[in-house]
Specification:
single chain; five-stranded parallel β-sheet; two-stranded antiparallel sheet; 11 helices; elongated
C-alpha cells in the first residue's frame, strides 16, 4: 500500500539522465568553462521559466563564451549530448501509478515535451508541471502547489522526489514528505 495520495517526481537526475562524461570531454577539448557558463542562473533562469527558448539560451551561452566559432561549436556539441531514461525508476513509478497519481515536476525548457516524446514518456505521467509552462521554477513554493493541485492531493499527502536537496527542503516546508534522491534504492525503499 502506498502511504501517499500522490507522488511528485523530478525529471532530470531522477528519471532522465545525461552523459556527464561527454560534457566533461567537450569542456576539456575546447578549454571552455561550458558547464559553469550554461548553468549560470542569469543565463539559465530565463529559459527555465519560459521567458526565452532553449535555442535562445544556447545563443546566450555562445555569447558568454566569447561568441567565436570555437564557442559555437562547443555549445553545439553540448546541446546534442545524449540522454536516457532510468528504466528501473520508470518501472517503479509505473507500478506506483497503478495506485496514486504520478506527476512530473521539473525545471525545464520549451523543449521538454519533445524530449519526453523522444524517450517514449509523452503519456507516462498523470501530469507534467514544467517550469517553462507555469512560469515558476523549483524551489519556488508555487510550483509545488500547482503540482499538488494537479495531482488532486493535499501537499501533506504528497511524496516529493528530487535529486537537489534545496528542492526537497522547499517541498518539506510546505508539509510534503521529501525524498532526496541519490540512487534507485532510495526511491524503492520509500515506494517498495
Amino acid at each position: 500500500m502506498i502511504p501517499f495520495a500522490a507522488v511528485l517526481c523530478d525529471f532530470d537526475g531522477v528519471l532522465r539522465h545525461f552523459d556527464h562524461a561527454a560534457q566533461a570531454d567537450i569542456e576539456a577539448r575546447y578549454g571552455l568553462p561550458l558547464m559553469k557558463t550554461a548553468f549560470d542562473p542569469e543565463l539559465i533562469m530565463p529559459a527555465t521559466v519560459g521567458h526565452v527558448t532553449e535555442e535562445q539560451w544556447a545563443e546566450s551561452i555562445v555569447a558568454a563564451l566569447g561568441g567565436d566559432e570555437r564557442a559555437r561549436q562547443a555549445v553545439g556539441e553540448f546541446m546534442r549530448i545524449g540522454f536516457w531514461v532510468d528504466e528501473e525508476v520508470r518501472a517503479l513509478l509505473a507500478r506506483v501509478q497503478e495506485h496514486v497519481p504520478v506527476v512530473i515536476v521539473t525545471n525545464a525548457m520549451d523543449t521538454l515535451e519533445q524530449h519526453m516524446d523522444l524517450l517514449g514518456l509523452t503519456y507516462f505521467a498523470d501530469d507534467v508541471v514544467s517550469s517553462a509552462r507555469v512560469g515558476v521554477a523549483k524551489p519556488d513554493r508555487r510550483i509545488y502547489e500547482i503540482a499538488a493541485e494537479r495531482a488532486g492531493a493535499d501537499p501533506e499527502r504528497c511524496l516529493f522526489v528530487d535529486d537537489r536537496l534545496q528542492n526537497v527542503e522547499a517541498a518539506r516546508a510546505l508539509g510534503m514528505t521529501g525524498l532526496h534522491y541519490r540512487t534507485y534504492q532510495d526511491l524503492a525503499a520509500v515506494l517498495g
